[in-house]
TrEMBL record:
TM regions (residue ranges): 90-116, 137-157, 169-190
Name of the molecule in the record: Helix-turn-helix
Signal peptide: none
Lineage: Bacteria, Pseudomonadati, Bacteroidota, Sphingobacteriia, Sphingobacteriales
Residue ranges of domain HTH cro/C1-type in the record: 7-61
InterPro entries according to UniProt: Cro/C1-type_HTH, Lambda_DNA-bd_dom_sf
Length: 203
């Protein structure tokens, strides 16, 4: 029996959906779908994670199905299913979702994290670039909060010790950081457009 059939049968036997199995195994839904369709041969680590989530043994699930990433079968699957335009589209949507900071600042990075988790992409470059975009948004939220606190501290000290000779308006750091983040997101979009893709997957 093929690995794809074993995973599908074991999942249905436990009454799990593909989404539930993906959450238990800490992989994407797309990864589960590709494995069950026989479009991808996962690494040993992924098989071990699936075996644990399905409550079965690694040996029973693998049964000589594990292959090196350099094997002809894996290469053929990657070449047939890899689409650079789809990967760029995923990253562009993720980048554009970062503009949610205009409505929900400081926690807006949760949206691109959610999109990455449910994107279904297993391409290493896509995942790495998405993580860079998300990290930049987290850094922005931290710096934004720090500048507002710094402004508060400056105004407090100025009011208490210098009789409020000059108070800094909170809108200055606020709008400065907002404009800066727009440039950060646009820079990420330009980087994505200029990225050269190769079919390297991390299943």
């Amino acid at each position: 029996m093929e690995l794809s059939e074993k995973v599908a049968i074991a999942r249905k036997r436990k009454g799990l959906t593909q989404e539930q199995l993906a959450d238990l195994a800490n992989v994407t839904v797309r990864t589960i779908q590709r494995i069950e369709r026989g479009e991808s041969i996962p690494r040993a680590f992924t098989i071990k994670t699936l075996a644990k989530a399905l409550g079965t043994n690694f040996e029973d699930l693998a049964n000589n199905e594990t292959q090196n990433d350099s094997s002809p079968n894996v290469s053929a699957v990657v070449q047939n299913n890899f689409n650079p335009d789809n990967e760029r589209h995923i990253l562009k949507i993720l980048c554009l979702s970062c503009f949610s900071y205009l409505a929900i600042p400081l926690v807006h990075f949760i949206i691109p994290i959610y999109l990455l988790k449910h994107s279904g992409s297993s391409n290493t470059l896509t995942i790495n670039l998405a993580r860079v975009v998300i990290r930049r948004q987290i850094y922005w939220a931290i710096v934004h909060s720090f500048l507002l606190l710094l402004t508060l501290a400056y105004n407090f000290i100025n009011a208490v010790y210098f009789e409020a000779s000059y108070l800094l308006h909170y809108l200055w750091p606020f709008f400065t950081m907002y404009i800066l983040n727009a440039f950060i997101i646009m820079h990420s979009l330009i980087r994505i457009n200029n990225t050269t893709y190769s079919p390297v997957f991390s299943v």
